Amino acid sequence: MKRTVLPFFLLISLSVSAQTRNKNNKAIFLEDINWTKAKEVLTADAVVVIPLGAAAKEHGPHLPLATDFIQAEHYKNMVALERKVIITPTISYGLYPAFVKYPGSTTTFFTTSRNVLLDIIRTLSGFGPKRFYVINIGVSTIPALQQAASILKQEGIVLYYSDYARPNYENAEKGIKERDAGGHADEIEGSNVLFMRPELVDMSKAVDDTTGYTRPGPLTPVPMEPGKLSPSGIIGFATFAKAEKGKRNSINFTKELVKDIDSVTSCALPVAKDNSIAYKSFLGNYTSAKGESIEIGIDNNRLYYIWNKGRDLRKFFPLFPDSEDHFTSMYIDILFVRDENKEVVKLWCSFRGDNFWFTKNK
Question: Residue 329's pLDDT is what?
């Protein structure tokens, strides 16, 4: 019985989501279409927008854990009314290390946060698009976004994202904030959620808390070295939040998002790096002590592997560089090892969870 009922309710949920889209939308939501329609719209000139906002991260006692997610969802719907882009499902987990001592807050590691972005963008770019924009609701997410953008640039792909530290986004709050100090679960974030999802806000629990400014380090609700004590989890003046401020900030923020997206639409694509020379030293056949073999080759400017002379997945899962000598793919991680002359002589790999050492054949 459960096998039939659960999918049925899932279909109802997805159907309702699709039916409640604004009829004036210019954008296409990827989750609402089938793969044949996706084939039509995922073209070389398409711009793909990826919302990123934590769905489980503390925002004081007055705001829900999904505060960032709520904002990401709101802004993707605002962008949908303005531009003909393709919008992916919202990424609800990321790098949020400052809040791990508050129950319910969840974070990924840096490499996970970066690699989720890389995996999504590389998969979608395989169908055509080379221009991507992230609606980023957060600050600690920026380093992972920066590194992902740098890596993708080498592959001829543009990735840009919203950043609260840039002047245009700082200016979006001018004339709205009554208190300059803030940064987390504060006047602006509280105002945003009061405007977007007022039923989830309990302003009777809002407090003004600036203890988080004391020194660098992760926040903690109880004294704990070397963290910085913030009993409420708020950094700023939460009691000044008002829905009207959230509405004004939402309009300003959306304008900046649209400007960013327009710049992605019109910018020149980077030239992909030619890897033929850099990858030459990796090519060849390798054998393990147990008799397994792996062949490393290059095709379409990317490394590929053939496992035990039979598993050739180069057209499905090529190897992507994680660093100079470390490559990863769907099932496998490979670390090439060099001798004192900088020649590749061995490789270590993790294949479906099993670890192997291989020696390069002469």
Answer: 93
DSSP string, 57-101: ---TTTS-TTHHHHHHHHHHHHHHHH---EEPPPB-----GGGTT
165 with 292, same domain? no
**If pLDDT is split at 50, 70 and 90, which confidence band does 283 have?**
very high
DSSP 3-26: HHHHHHHHHHHHHHHHHTS-TT--
Predicted confidence at residue 213, as pLDDT, reads: 78
pLDDT at 8: 39
Domain that holds residue 307: 280-360
Sorted by sequence, the CB contacts under 8 Å of residue 240 that are 6+ apart come out as 177, 178, 179, 187, 190, 208
Mean pLDDT of 211-233: 87
**Cα–Cα distance, 351 to 294 (Å, whole number):** 11
Report the SS3 class of residue 182. Answer: coil
User: Burial level of 231, CB count in 10 A (0-12/13-18/19+)?
Assistant: middle
Please indicate, yes or no, whether residues 239 and 177 belong to a single structural domain of this protein. yes
For residues 307-318, give the mean pLDDT.
89
Q: Is the dihedral of CA 239, 245, 246, 250 positive or negative?
A: negative
Say whether pTM exceeds 0.85.
Answer: yes
Residue 16: pLDDT band (50, 70, 90) is very low
* β-pairing verdict for 158-161 and 131-137: parallel
Q: What's the total number of domains in the chain? A: 2
| 333: three-class secondary structure by DSSP | strand
Tell whether the torsion through CA atoms of 275, 278, 280 and 281 is positive or negative: negative
Nearest to 84 by CA among 56, 113, 58, 46: 46
Assign 48 to helix, strand or coil: strand
